[in-house]
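Batch job 17 of 40 flagged for manual review because the log was empty.
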Amino acid sequence: MGGRQTGRRRQRLRLVVVPRLHLALVAASLLAIAAGVAYARHLATVSWTIQATVSGKVVVIDPGHGGDDPGTLGVDGVLEKDVTLPIAQRLREVCGSHAVYALLTRSKDASVAEGIWDPGRRRDELQARADLANRWRADVFISVHANSFPESYWHGAQTFHYPGDQRSRRLALAIQQQLVKRHLTPDYREALPGRYYVLHQVQAPAVLVEVGFLSNPQESRNLQDPAYQRRLADAIFAGLVDFWLAERRSPDQAGMTEPRYEYP
């Protein structure tokens, strides 16, 4: 009897033995869960920091041209004014989804200044756009345009800032870095100074973003694609966040570091 009971006890013990491989898998799973929880907390902290930084900011988005001013003509017949508006609208949507107030200088195919646009009143039209940004107390002003060049092989987006305006320069750098990072422009393109009247007249940091070349057949098609337009909007917004986060840490270094924001 005693021998039989001992055998049964041993049998029961064998039933609960866990192979080392299973133990290793369990340990690895627990570590992965712990790492996942830590990363989720990190993301929550980062998300909160971003939200706290951008929430309530005012961005004025200026879709270039409009109305009787068509802008440049693409190789496939598309007009610049018909490309800049949907990109600006998508940028407004992205801003709005992050509690950023985004206002358009124009929301339809029309000039901003009263009356009919004509080349002789070009400065009046640009001044009207700058006046809106100043009246709305913009934290940032972004003018959206499309480029053109006689040679069709040129491509890529590029940002411009008014010479000598350091905050605008840092904003342009931050957006340009995100455009490069997201493969929307070659890495040899850089943020450059440009004596654009509208940038000079806006009191807030102001940049002009040339979203691509309508003279390039492939890029012209891309710029008319809603998915590509959204990629551009995401990149511009990510640059805005990088700029604001950097200014929060150190105003003098804003836009001078590697792009950090990973949205979306």
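Reviewer: the log was empty due to a logging misconfiguration, but the result itself is present. The first strand starts at residue 58 and ends at 63. Unflagging and moving on to job 18.
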